[in-house]
Every structure is written in structure tokens, then in C-alpha cells.
Amino acid sequence: MKPIIIAIVGDSGSGKTYMAEFLRNQLNVPTIVSYTTRPKRPGETDGVGHYFINASQLPDKQDMLAYTSFGGYEYFALHEQVPCKGICCYVIDESGLEMLYYNHCERYDIVSVLIICPQDVLILRGIDSNRLKRDKGRKHLGEKFFDCIIRNDVSKEEFEYKILCEFNRL
């Protein structure tokens, strides 16, 4: 049986990281932590949301599970981060998901999850207009590309319930 990667996609503030943390904390599903060349934001810790590296530390592309460049910075994960057996999740953008799917679907079972959150809710969550504008410029694969779509304009408890329902469906 191939390792399963739950690839989670969505706009800034939509709940991608929350879903990954929920799966890790409630169901012991490990999360792949991306590497990035972008600087740490206030409050971030190396190795928690990302591993922060210099551009000179980029590995060979053949070692990469997925790769994307966004906002002038590079983001990637490595094959060695995927558990040999079982299931894991990975917060990724749509360009990286497309690379993952088309280059590695023979090696991994990939379950693509799109989290949708209306813009007015994102604004209420404190996502600034620059990030919202930036997200509009990202690649969008269309809903038909995804195995699962979760709308997150509800309470945390309702969102968790939706996650569990979808996870049990897998």
C-alpha cells in the first residue's frame, strides 16, 4: 500500500493549518512541514509552520516532493518527510499540489482537500487586504480537481465536525 498524503489547499486564513493541527492532535496524523526561503513572520517558530532556510540551501529538485515559488520566495517539501507507511497531511498551494499530483501519483495516494472560506469571513478573522489580494493572484485549479471540498464559515466545533466527517469518508 502506498503512503497517503492529504494535501490541504485554501486561501490565507481559511483553516488549512488548523485542519492539519486538528488531524495531528486528534487523530495522530503527522504533518509535513514545508521549507521556505521567506523570512519568519512575528510569532513563527522554525520547524513548526515552516523550516526557514537560505536560498543557497535548496536541495536538488529530484529530492523534492513538491515545489512552488510565490511572492519571491520558494517553498518545498522532501520525499524523506513522507512516512513510509500510513497517512500524513501537507498544507500546500495549488501549484505545489499540481506538481505533487502529476509527478508523484504513482508513488503516493494523494487526497486533495480544498478549504473554502468567504472573503467577508476572512476579513473578520483578521486577514489583511494585501494577503487577500495576493491569494487572488495564485493558481486556482478549480473545484473539480479536488477529492474533497470543505466550506469553513462556521464555528471551530462545526469545522472540526466537517473535518471528521470527511476524514471518515476516506
Automatic annotation (TrEMBL):
Residues 3-74 form the Guanylate kinase-like domain. This is Guanylate kinase-like domain-containing protein. Coiled coil: none annotated. It comes from the Bacteria. It comes from Bacteroides oleiciplenus YIT 12058.
